[in-house]
């Protein structure tokens, strides 16, 4: 990449990287996230736009420097990885094999005495102004405000991007790509800086057109979620997935200026409870109430307490209806591991602390052997999943034939998701009502304390 030359000859400004130097920890540098993009892939390909090195991770050997726009193929053959460029082939390799992004640029800083300091722009830059306040610089279009007004600092604007093509199509990503052999197939992992990861998350989890304070709220919650997953999965091959089982991540192509601005504005901001990271679970719509953690799953967490959520009201996920015949209900329950040959009754046994959601449900009928079977399903998220519904905030009506035999069940409910922590539609409503992101987070996460610099 080109050297990004930034000359700042203002004696009142001190420029420094926002993220500390990388150190080795469980195969990944500190401050990075490993995202599982795909697994079970027979073959894949990639192209780079920028400065990358192909590395055999088993021995640290640098194999090649892929050229701009050159297509590389990755396959598994006899349990080994082969990587093929336009003119060269590498392998068989035990792997993993990493396509590693090199430094995208270096900032050259001049202080008031004319002394030079070199800093990587990958980590992000900020300045301390004359009032002692920290201001974040956009590394692609950095600027400062002088007495004469705002001045944009010229730079190359270069950015490392890698295009991955696999079973789900092609997308561009920041950071690097790792290819691992697992059971004769490829597993593909995107390793990148936490803040770059969040750029692809916030834009995928929340519409860019929503209020700025809502986007900032999402950025902090997503940062907490990712960091907590990094802590709890150390030693594993990846930390998070790119889908709803973790949080949605669309890579570089999903990014937007508004969501990137929200990530930058909250850089390093996290929520703590008792000095530990809050497990910042969030969902799409609460249906008007969030829940206690022990009612939805099992563990009791002090910051996940039920709340009335009047700002969540929306036309998308309120008053939905689902109708099942008994046969359809059997199929749904079977998909969740509950096998019935006949279903004769459905009974609500308990509700959550808010009174809004079904916490425990009994299903009566006959098992596969024909013997009488009663299954109790709890807690509320298991109820939702077992029935294949958007939420466990529902009521239901049973339908019978003339012989009083159950023929179907009709569900009416509101919300989408487990109902823990932050409701995204509720966040939108609070932001529209004038609340800032700090106030919104403190409402949804009881007793949480906001901390800068990742809570260090």
TrEMBL record:
The segment(s) forming the Sporulation stage II protein D amidase enhancer LytB N-terminal domain are: 183-271
Q: Which InterPro entries match?
A: Bact_Sporulation_Assoc, SpoIID/LytB, SpoIID/LytB_N
One GO CC term on file: outer membrane-bounded periplasmic space
Q: Which GO terms describe its biological process?
A: sporulation resulting in formation of a cellular spore
Cleavable signal peptide = 1-21
List the keywords (alphabetical). Signal
Has keyword Signal?
A: yes
Manganese as a keyword?
A: no
Q: What is this protein called?
A: Amidase enhancer
Tell me the organism: Pelotomaculum propionicicum
**Highest lineage ranks of the organism?**
Bacteria, Bacillati, Bacillota, Clostridia, Eubacteriales
């Amino acid at each position: 990449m080109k050297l990004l030359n930034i000359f700042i000859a203002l004696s009142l400004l001190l420029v420094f990287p926002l993220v500390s130097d990388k150190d080795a920890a469980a195969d990944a540098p500190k401050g990075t996230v490993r995202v599982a993009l795909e697994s079970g892939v027979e073959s894949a390909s990639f192209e780079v736009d920028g400065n990358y090195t192909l590395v055999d991770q088993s021995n640290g050997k640098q194999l090649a420097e892929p050229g701009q726009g050159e297509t590389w193929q990755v396959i598994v053959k006899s349990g080994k990885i082969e990587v093929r460029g336009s003119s060269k082939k590498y392998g068989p390799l035990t792997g993993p094999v990493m396509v590693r992004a090199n430094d995208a640029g270096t900032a050259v800083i001049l202080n008031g005495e004319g002394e030079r300091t070199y800093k990587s722009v990958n980590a992000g830059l900020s300045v301390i102004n004359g009032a002692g306040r920290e201001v974040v610089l956009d590394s692609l279009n950095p600027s400062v405000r002088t007495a004469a007004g705002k001045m944009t600092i010229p730079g190359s604007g270069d950015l490392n991007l890698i295009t991955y093509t696999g079973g789900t199509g092609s997308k561009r990503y920041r950071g690097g790509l790792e290819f691992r052999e697992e059971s004769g197939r490829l597993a593909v992992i995107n390793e990148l800086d936490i803040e770059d990861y969040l750029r692809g998350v916030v834009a995928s989890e929340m519409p860019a057109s929503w209020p700025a304070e809502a986007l900032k709220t999402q950025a902090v919650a997503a940062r907490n979620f990712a960091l907590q997953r990094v802590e709890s999965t150390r030693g594993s091959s990846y930390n998070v997935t790119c889908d709803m089982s973790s949080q949605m991540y669309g890579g570089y192509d999903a990014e937007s200026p508004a969501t990137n601005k929200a990530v930058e504005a909250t850089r390093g901001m996290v929520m703590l409870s008792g000095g530990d990271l809050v497990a910042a679970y969030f969902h799409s719509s609460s249906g008007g109430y969030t829940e206690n953690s022990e009612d939805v799953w099992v563990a009791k967490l002090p910051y996940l307490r039920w709340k009335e959520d009047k700002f969540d009201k929306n036309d998308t996920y309120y008053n939905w209806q689902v109708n099942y015949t008994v046969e359809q209900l059997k199929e749904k329950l079977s998909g969740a591991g509950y096998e019935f040959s006949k279903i004769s009754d459905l009974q609500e046994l308990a509700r959550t602390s808010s009174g809004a959601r079904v916490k425990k449900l009994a299903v009566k009928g006959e098992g596969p052997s024909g013997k009488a079977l009663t299954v109790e399903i709890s807690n509320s998220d298991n109820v939702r999943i077992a029935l294949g519904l958007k939420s466990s905030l529902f009521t239901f009506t049973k339908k019978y034939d003339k012989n009083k035999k159950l023929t179907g069940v009709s569900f009416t409910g509101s919300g989408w998701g487990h109902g823990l922590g932050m409701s995204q539609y509720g966040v939108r409503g609070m932001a529209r009502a004038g609340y800032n992101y700090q106030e919104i987070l403190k409402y949804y996460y009881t007793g949480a304390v906001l901390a800068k610099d990742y809570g260090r």
